[in-house]
Amino acid sequence: MAKKRIGFGIFLILFCTIAYIMTYSIPQRVQMEVSAAFFPRVVLIALAVSALLVIIGGLKEYRLEKVQIKKEEKGEFHYKLLVLSLINCLGYGILLKPLGFVFTSSVFLILQMWLMTADITKKIFIRNTILSITVVVALYVLFTTVFYVPLP
Amino acid sequence: MGMFLTGLLAVLNIKTLILMIIGVAVGIIFGSVPGMTATMAVALFIPVTFSMDTIPGMAVMIALYVGGISGGLIPAILLNMPGTPSSIATTFDGYPLTQQGKGGKALGTAVVVSFFGGVISFLILSFASPLLAKIALKFGPFEYFSLMLFALTIIATVTRGSFIMGIVSGLIGMVFTFVGMAPVDGVDRFTFGLYQLKGGFSLLPVLIGLFAVSEIFKAAESGFKEEIQEVPEVSGFGMTFQEIKEQAVNIFRSGVVGTIVGILPGIGGSTASILSYSQAKKASKTPEKFGTGIVDGLIASEAANNGLTGGALVPLLALGIPGDSTTAVLLGALMIQGVQPGPLLFRSNPDVIYGIFGALLIANVIMLLIEFFGIKIFINILKVPKSILLPIVFITCALGAFAVNNTLFDVWVVIIFGILGYVLSKFGIQLAPLIIGFILGPMAEGNLRRALMLSSGSITPMFTKPISLLFVVATVISVGSVIYKSFKNKNKEESNILA
Fold this sequence. Notes:
Chain B: Keywords: Membrane, Transmembrane, Transmembrane helix. The complex is a heterodimer. Chain A is mostly helical.
């Protein structure tokens, strides 16, 4: 965790530096006492200082971790499932407009439920498919006919 | 008293009561689905009230409002997903209670204190609204900015573990608010030439992305182990009379905090519940237990957000100024009915005023009964496998976000902030301080800039105006005590490790 914190602190300082430089491109209204860049600058400086403290804290923690013999039990990390879920969510965002709410949402639900069910059987898959389509159609009807929200 | 009884009687007829029961039930459904809010419920039902008389029409609106605010407690407690922005602080202790197998008790407690919060705000509204409205008018930009500064110290209160990581988290939340048009002068900032970014990020998509969608990725990382949660037995209200007695001060304080925050226009329910949570933690003999599943925290949040409902009606009715987004819609509903809220309303339409007061009380009673009998149904949500629940929640979140502005951009905000919430949590960044920074940042900035415009760039009035000075002193004390405690704990920990 200490190494992660140090890395995150460094990233934050870099981010703050770039964002701070970008504040100079914010247009300024002549009649304003305080420009629109003022508050972002204050917050970015505060964030950079805090990030520095995070790095210092991380370095201290790193030393303490060396003194302390820690046995961290790490759970299994399922990269494949995580990446597939990410792709499914991003795909949903990309395809929502061209393919429409009903189709995209149904496919998203079927895929995500399939991904999230550990021991999937044919029966469970069919149940999930029916459930997905029913939920999506019900939501579509509710929003378009009752609430008059035009869905893609 | 006579007018109050007249108002109450105007609501106490079968037709209005049935309409109110439907209103509260619909409000609860809206509040309990992540992505949908009380504002949406009220806005969507305005056309339904067109043909109604003023008092029944407004009673339905109030019922939707009370139900919508209260309904957010259900997913907040059972799923760690705030149904509405007002229930953010409910997740802090509500979900840990569910994890301990006390979901039924948590729901019952939250329902009971929501009712008490609503009643406290009703009493304040009924007896002191014109006076309170006058006090609210004394709040200028300096007072608001000082209040925001004080409210930002909540970040320290809700942070678990590293204090500095809490600060970083809150500041990151503020950074996200810089995207879009600047408050006051509307200058574009960090929009990278994209017109979609001009409006900035709306609170609802950010909130549901961070809290609800990130759960999918957290579940994916652990390999989607299906943890079937035991559904606890639910009996009674979850709170004994003795517990109510013990928590009386907390309930009263939280209800009052919620009402006061509601009275101040533009602050909102999320701030009310977080501020109240912070005050409860400061007043507690066991502050270290907050965030681990302590009913005190749950009570503080829920009594405050329902306390807000009455408070937000004070500036609406007495001044014609909406206290939050939902009351802004209520203002529209009143005007459609031909009622012009403002100081004259108490003289010109006292029947409407006291009818609304009566509706607030009745709506709270209906909310208590519906949620009490509904607990046994709500708790069954724990039986639904996460493999089914989480994807459906994602779809409702996307749908709710889309409905805010009818734009796909908000769906992307949900997805991106879901990923961001997951990534940040990997670096030890807590999401509660982040969302507090996101909510309070723009209010602090807007009021600071307005204040400096009024004082020609001088910060002195912040220390010379009594209300502002009061909040500045409170901020200094709050920050000082947190830093002192943090150093004390850290030194203790380090000496323990090195010993």
